Amino acid sequence: MVPLTSIRTSNGKLEIVNQLLLPHKTEFIDINTIEDAHDAIKTMKIRGAPAIASLAALSLSWHLSTAIETSALPEFFASPEAMKAHIEQILAFLFTARPTAVNLGAATRRLAQILQASVAAKKNTLDIAHDLIAEGNLIADEDIGRNKKMSKWGGDWLVRHVEGGGVSSTALNVLTVCNTGSLATSGYGTALGMITYLYETGKLGKAYYTQTAPYHQGSRLTALELQTLNIPSVMICDTMVGSLLQHHKIHAVIVGADRIARNGDTANKIGTYNAAVIAARHQIPFIVIAPISTVDLDIGDGSRIPIEHRPPIEACLARGILYPGVDGIPNQAVVMITPQNLDGVYNPSFDVTPADLITAIITEKGVAVRKEGQEIFDLSDIV
Ligand code: MRU
């Protein structure tokens, strides 16, 4: 089984899979410029908090490697100071591609710090470029390792938690939202990584996932990932979470995150808050799993997390193939599912789940469990 991937750097190219065409068509597109990377992130050709940070970082590495290979570096940058000004502009531009996921800002800040330190150390433009290329590649590469670590922390914790309640942990049923697997990260995934770990260790019963309208990351991407991994799974519509939790034994809801505030309030894909409220009603553990770079200690609580509102038209469209296809050939289609020119459309891409609805937050450093009677988290041990 070849895991799906969102970014490819082989063949002397930087490419991404166009996620707008999945699951019916796998088409790689070249990312040749910083503008290409910005556009791909903004238009959702690549999405998922860690994956967009990786692409932003790699696009800078790519930009600089190309300048070195084509001997254009001296023309581009007359001096380290000129180079600093130019790269700061690039990083500021990349940062504007999407606002909610903190990973993008964390990556651009990290690169800005390397730039600052290398210029302060009086390095020449070639050495500064090499420092930035190395850091950009590291940002993308380190993601898989930490995903595996946090998935193990989370999976082992859930098994202990369930067994502590006197329940067998051999067939755990879990619900997730959105897409948090190898397509949303550099590999293995966050919430989907934890689900994969439960499957690999023989603890998973079924993975339920919501379709996740309006972009359908669940039915288009999570469905494909689970199928590729041979993980037993069941899709539900977003409106069915309450029914599922009423009528089926679900041991945990497991979600990723785009930004976690200091108190544990968590921004994630729209619909996550609904699932958390219903999980609390049914006393089902609600678990958030994300890398340390998703925790934003500068933000005290969720009210200060910027929430991206996507263009209204996106909530009026569905993407897919014409079924059963014209002349047996599946045709890609974007269809309108509403009357044209609706009066109003509310289309926030994310919502914030308050910390008091979250049972545990997991990073690559470990598991923070909200203490009995407390409404907020102490994240100091896991960041
Ligand atoms: O709008 P998207 O598809 O980029 O949103 C993605 C999510 O909300 C994921 O759940 C989140 O990034 C965590 S992924 C590892």
From TrEMBL:
Keyword Cytoplasm annotated: yes
Positions bearing the site annotation: Transition state stabilizer: 178
Coiled coil: none
EC number in record: 5.3.1.23
Catalysed transformations (reactions): 5-(methylsulfanyl)-alpha-D-ribose 1-phosphate = 5-(methylsulfanyl)-D-ribulose 1-phosphate
One Pfam short name: IF-2B
Catalytic site positions: 258 (proton donor)
UniProt keyword annotations, A-Z: Amino-acid biosynthesis, Cytoplasm, Isomerase, Methionine biosynthesis, Nucleus
Domain of life: Eukaryota
One GO CC term, this protein: cytoplasm
Family: Belongs to the eIF-2B alpha/beta/delta subunits family. MtnA subfamily.
NCBIfam families for the chain: eIF-2B_rel (TIGR00524), PRK05720.1 (NF004326), salvage_mtnA (TIGR00512)
Protein name: Methylthioribose-1-phosphate isomerase
Source species: Collybia nuda
